[in-house]
Amino acid sequence: MARRGASVTLIERGRVGCESSWAGAGILSVLPPWDYDKGVIDLARYSETLYADWVASLKETSGIDCEYRRSGMLMLTADDDERDDIRARDWFAASCAESERVAARAIVPQLAVEREAWWLPSAAQVRPPRLLKALLVALSRMDVKVIENTEVLGFCQSGSRIVSLRCGEGELGGGQFVVCAGAWSQRLLGEHALALDIQPVRGQMLLFNCALNTLGPMLLEDDFYLVPRADGHILAGSTVENVGFDKSTTAAAREELMAHAHALLPSLNKKNLAAQWAGLRPAAPGNIPAIARHPEIDNLFINSGHFRYGVTMAPGSARLLTAAALGLPAAIDTAPYRWPGGARAWKSS
Q1: What sign for the dihedral angle of Cα 213, 216, 221, 226?
Q2: 338: helix, strand or coil
């Protein structure tokens, strides 16, 4: 929106980029894709077409390398799940996605077990903390005002419009208002949430400090993944826990993730464990985010509920939100992302 000439102010309860976007793995694919609705797949694919140019622009503006790269993804298959294998074959055939059925050790020789796998050579990743740093620099150079450590307490409304936000230091006015508070979005909106259902789901992650080239591609087994970084670090994740807004880490999760990582790649162990953290994902029904204008309040918008795929869907979601706020045509069908509780959506091109 700022690039289109809008005057933008970002209000952050804490510090910018320190919640679930920072905590995520940065896998830029929906996995496995055959488990998700079309609305999830379409937005992820749209974002995928935008990512390379987006991060290149951010690097040019900020000087920060977001470590976007096509490292590939090896998806291990279950030996006894013929039904899932058929679903995978059908999906790859129908989608024309670049894929190959392989012996897992042909791609990752150091794997502890020999398994059949799907090899996705074009699967990409980005490093979220670097992406967020680059974004913050880019915002400053576009004269976007960033107000940190300021909690929004409520909305001041006149008729069918919001006129200002109630904050700890007083009121902040504006012409349009966008809620993008992740897992806190529904709580922030209060009665204005209508049928919106966004709940926090904790995900815990481990980071291993390894030698370069310990693992080449990303590795996926069921809901567990290993993501290698360019500097040798490897992420292992993640848990899915319904514990409300508790962002603490646990010994039980550490042991669970450690055991799974070591079973796949024996070089991952307690000796090279570098960190553990947790983030609160904004989970919505069907994993489909809401990116839309409020059905009853003309100048209130939302961009939230992406669950595991906030970073994955980021550039596409920003484009859809801009289209909604500025009255522009959208690149994909927006019907799946309308605000629950109302029928209003903007037209796709």
Answers
A1: positive
A2: coil
Establish whether the linkage from the previous residue to 315 is cis, with ω within 30° of 0. no
- The alpha helices in the chain, defined as continuous H runs, are 20-23, 38-62, 82-95, 104-107, 128-141, 185-189, 251-264, 314-326
107-128 tens-digit pLDDT = 999 999 889 999 999 999 999 9
User: Looking at residue 204, which CATH number applies to its domain?
Assistant: 3.30.9.10
Which tens digits make up the pLDDT trace of 11-22? Answer: 999 999 889 999
The tokens for 156 are 């001041």
Our CA dihedral for 157, 341, 319, 135, rounded to 10 degrees, sits at 60
Range of the domain at 243: 200-283
Same domain, 209 and 275: yes
pTM: 0.92
Residues 118 and 107: their CA atoms lie apart, in Å, by 10
Asked if residue 161 and residue 113 are part of one domain, the reply reads no
